[in-house]
Design brief:
Blueprint lengths: L2 H7 L3 H5 L21 H15 L6 H12 L3 H7 L8 H16 L12 H6 L1 H50 L3
Length: about 180
């Protein structure tokens, strides 16, 4: 992955440090490694962000930051990738997680009518919570591993292509009369 492409979309580190929900981390956000763009930190940021995208709780960005800081992976990338699960993508993602969980556990899918109320969360969620959370965990780990490996491979491929291009350019310059 070219650094220039990622840098174009990255927020300034000062903006991230002053984010109202991230102030709880205080001076921990002053570690420059949290904002470096290298193969390890970007791939780690992808892994953390994609894992927490599958965690069905509010404030996923804070949780992603809480793990990115001790792992010293790219903080803005890990926080941004949490938004893979947004109000448009959550229903299909979480339904798939529920179906996957039922398949893993070996139980039949139960019919339920979802309502975004505290009453439903208290009474309706207890019917599906085990397969749902298992599916979310499995998908979080799988997408995290896939994201990590894919970014590492893409980054390496980018470096190899750039080196080949430099070598070809050097050879063509040396062959000029």
């Amino acid at each position: 992955m070219p650094k220039k492409f990622i840098k174009r979309y990255m927020p300034d580190h000062k903006v991230v440090r002053e984010h109202r929900h991230l102030r709880i981390f205080g001076r921990l956000l002053h570690d420059p490694n949290l904002f470096h763009l290298n193969r390890r930190s970007v791939a780690g940021g992808f892994a953390v962000g994609l894992f927490f995208a599958w965690v069905p709780v509010p404030f996923q960005m804070v949780l992603a930051a809480a793990l990115a800081i001790p792992l010293r992976v790219n903080l803005p990338i890990s926080m941004a990738l949490v938004w893979v699960s947004n109000p448009l993508t959550m229903p299909p993602m979480f339904y798939f997680a529920y179906v996957l969980g039922t398949w893993i556990i070996g139980v039949r899918e139960k019919t339920f009518h979802f309502e975004l109320t505290f009453e439903w969360l208290g009474s309706g969620l207890h019917v599906i919570w085990q397969p749902f959370l298992l599916g979310c965990f499995v998908m979080g780990v799988a997408s995290s591993l896939f994201g990590y490996v894919a970014i590492r491979m893409l980054w390496r491929l980018s470096i190899v292509r750039r080196l080949k291009k430099k070598t070809l350019l050097r050879r063509s310059k040396s062959q000029l009369p």
